[in-house]
Amino acid sequence: MAEAGLKRKTALATVTLIIGASIPAVDAVTKFVSSDYALQVRRGWAHGILALLVWPFLLTGAMLGVDRLQRWRFRRGNQGSRVPAHLG
What we know:
Blueprint: H1 2-9, H2 13-22, H3 35-41, H4 49-73
């Protein structure tokens, strides 16, 4: 999707797509808690309807925050032709 033109529409498009594809795997960290807990949680809330309603908003907010932080830190530097991140 990034190579099809999305990266020209908004900043951080490629990294957002990669994180978005990987974010449901966050439930894999439950393996470090215990194997029983991992069995109960695995492929549960992180892949369910609740996740479909929550993950996109969390990822969008995080990526807009990262973009804003980068622009604030490097505002005196040359940003080049980088298109700012936006909700659209």
